Amino acid sequence: MNADRPTLSDTALVEAARGGDMRSFERLYRLHSSRIMGICLRMCRRRDVAEDCVQQTFVRAWRNLGAFEGRSAFSTWLHRIAVNEVLTYARNHGTRTETSDEDVEETAESGLGGGGEFDAGEVVDVERAIAGLPEGARHVLVLQAVYGYSHEEVADMLGIAVGTCKAQLHRGRKLLRERMGLEGSG
């Protein structure tokens, strides 16, 4: 994934924020909050919960900025924090499966990672199909197929075995193809 290499701007902003420069941290927030919101929405499927997880992600990042070692990109570190926040929320509050059309449309608006031409209706259909996947398959599919993390990285983030990660991805892709009416492809 391209995000594995820190960008100069992130590196400089992180260093300034470590020194107490709140404006630099606010800039990091503006640069990364929409992607963190996208990952939280795709994982938990509820706007209100996703907003709480995004807020907690950045609070935790601010508090632990000194622990960021820079071995991976700042965005990767934030994604790991966000995943942990979503999983912690689910453990503490139980998994809720309600997904409103508004939540799905907002997730679609956050984009699937590309910047090219797309049919908004198709994106909503894909997001709705992803939102309907079983939790394990959805989490792995979002992290691996949408955000580009390796099986090893996803397994580490979710606290599962690499083999389980691969099986969940296979299951998620199969279910997604079925729900999108593409059973005979890929």
From TrEMBL:
Pfam family, one: Sigma70_r4_2
Domain RNA polymerase sigma-70 region: residue ranges: 28-94
Record GO biological process: DNA-templated transcription initiation
Keyword Iron: no
UniProt domain RNA polymerase sigma factor 70 region 4 type: residue ranges: 126-176
Keywords assigned: Sigma factor, Transcription, Transcription regulation
InterPro entries xref list: RNA_pol_sigma-70-like, RNA_pol_sigma-70_dom, RNA_pol_sigma70_r2, RNA_pol_sigma70_r4_t2, RNA_pol_sigma_r2, RNA_pol_sigma_r3/r4-like, WH-like_DNA-bd_sf
GO MF, any single term: DNA binding
Gene3D superfamilies according to UniProt: 1.10.1740.10, Winged helix-like DNA-binding domain superfamily/Winged helix DNA-binding domain
Family in the record: Belongs to the sigma-70 factor family. ECF subfamily.
Protein name: RNA polymerase sigma-70 factor (ECF subfamily)
Native organism: Povalibacter uvarum
Lineage: Bacteria, Pseudomonadati, Pseudomonadota, Gammaproteobacteria, Steroidobacterales
